[in-house]
Amino acid sequence: MGLFGAIDAATSGAHVSRVWLDAISDNVANVNTDRPGDEEPFRARMVRVTSVDRRENGGVGGAAVVAIQNRGGDPALVYDPDNPIADEFGRVAKPVVDLGVEMTNLLIANRSYQANLRVIEHARDSYKSALQIGSR
Prior knowledge:
Largest sheet: 3 strands, antiparallel
Shape: elongated
Helix content: 40-55%
Strand order of the largest sheet: 1-5-4
Strand content: 15-25%
Structural class: alpha+beta
Order of helices and strands: HEEEEEH
Radius of gyration: 22 Å
Low-confidence stretches: none
Mean pLDDT: 90
């Protein structure tokens, strides 16, 4: 893999990190989004990623988003008859989002994005240096 391959791989990694950060921000924004007890609650979005084989993608490797899935599990049904959106039984469905997990994912996704940008910058600088050496 040459310099352009490194840039392509890091670009795909930065794209995956950006999609992950978008999903996390949506999850955190909806951590307090209640729904009536008889409706489907908000479920955290999870990004599924796969590696891309260089041989099968024209010599460019990296990572790609495969799908964005909703977190499974049973929602918490809370008895809150004073809530204006409660169902006829006074239940409210809480979102299926774990704020601790989301904050941890936020740190990881942010570091991943920064690391991929650094790889792009270093590859770009190396390429510029190689051009300057070749022009002498």
